[in-house]
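Review form for a predicted model. The reviewer records the input and the model, then writes brief findings.
Reviewer: anonymous (R2)
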Amino acid sequence: MGSEMCIRDRLWFRGKAMPTDASALLGDSPGASPVRRATVVSCVINLASTCMGTGVLALPAAYERAGFTAGTVLCIASALFTVLSLNLLMAAGGKLVDRGGLSFYSLCEAALPRSGRAVDIAVLINCIGTATSFLVVAADCFSKLGIFSRQVCVLLSSALVITPCFFRTMDMLKITSTVAVSSLLCISALILAFGFGLAPWLDPCPEHSSVLHGHCGNVVNYGSSDFRDVLCTLPLFINAYTCQQNVFNVLGELNRPTSLRKGAVMVFAPLLPMCLYLVVATAGYLTFGSAVASNVINSYPRSPIVAAARAVLGVVVLCNFPLQIFPARKSFISLLDSFSSSGPIVDMAFSLSLFLTERREVIITCVFLVFTCVTASLVTDLGAVVSLIGSTGATLIALITPGGAYCLLTWREEGKALQRASAMLLVALGALLSLIHISEPTRRTP
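Model under review:
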């Protein structure tokens, strides 16, 4: 009862409602206008950049296991699942317009009391694991250039992401997100150029240079003989689109947050990565076939252009690193508030500064940076542990939470049977994929 009252109580200061994530997101408070400066394009780029990381380079190997046809279907279906889950989250969040700050915690607490902490913990662990893996990949990419040792590369990579991690709003990351998306587009174009063998120095397999389009002569499976293999690759595609943890942050900063503008963000944010994924997965798999590596970049011969692609990949993951701190910080603060008997702590000094001003947000960000840096320095390959944490956490965030919250918050409403059926489908799919992933031998990520 106490937690429910805490959710319902409106925060007031000097006779005016304090700007909360819910009011900013739904556009019901004039006090929130200073933070609603993001455009539809910047929101799409930030949300799409949250999706796109090193996982895109594992998709050709997913095609190899599932088969070309099934892999293509799963890639497109996962994008549609993401669009559905984002819309379900926002529809469920709309039920909390008068219940204070909107977050995964408040949404889950309203739908199922005492479940908010579990989801916040899942978001926190998933963000920490993803951010740490970004530093590991960046250090590996830069150290292979032969200029600095791996330990030095970890420290330099951590130093490069310090400033954007202390930005107050996600809209301020639109430049780094644009760099990340543009860099991945360049890597995709390079993979496509290798696939067609457009020049002698773009031959992916010199020993088979006479084969059309640079195909390396390995087996390409256009179907699949094992349905379990197809199903086991679905978590890879679902994880590649996971951005739900940032949807409240991104749309909370959208200028003029009408239903049409929010809907455009939620549709185009997954479709942009989908186009990229289809190009990389198709070109990478058709080039190397059954011999494709789990990280498709490792399949290409050593050359200056491939070394440059590795360096660009390091830039991509560093640009995406700050996107993990926003949901992690918010979930950690939510956990702290849930254990506080006095309820949520509100910073009364609403700031328009470029960087964070609230003391505990600064402290949490510093701890996050130190922890991920130390972990990346000690662990050269996160391997099965990070893969297991990331997959199960991402499944909970991307499928189970959106579907479950929507069903519970709209259970007694009439005329929404189709929406509830689709929400229950997401929950069932998420539960199934979690069980499959736990029972399957974990494959290493790139």
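Findings: The first helix runs from residue 2 to 8.
Further findings: Residues 1-34, 442-446 have pLDDT under 50 and may be disordered.
Recommendation: see findings above.
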